Amino acid sequence: MQCPSCQADLQMAERHGVEIDYCPKCRGVWLDRGELDKIIERAAAANEPPRTAPRAAPDHPEPRWRDDDDRHSRHHKPRKRGFLGELFDFD
Hints:
Elements: E1 11-15, E2 18-22, E3 29-30, H1 35-47, H2 68-73, H3 83-87
Antiparallel strand pairs: 1-2, 2-3
């Protein structure tokens, strides 16, 4: 199949059980019927917080120590990719 925008041959990729057609030239993404609904459902499920029992507050809170090196290292970690970022990353 050819890309409707630039006429290049589309490539197929399966991500999280969803088959996605994409154009390697213009980076367009083309979905078949029902695939967008699957993506929305799976993205919503991936963004739900885990269900855990609430924790009781401790009687005596532990002191929090700050280490300047630790504080600065948090800002240099690579950003965690979300479900949609991972789904549409074709590089």
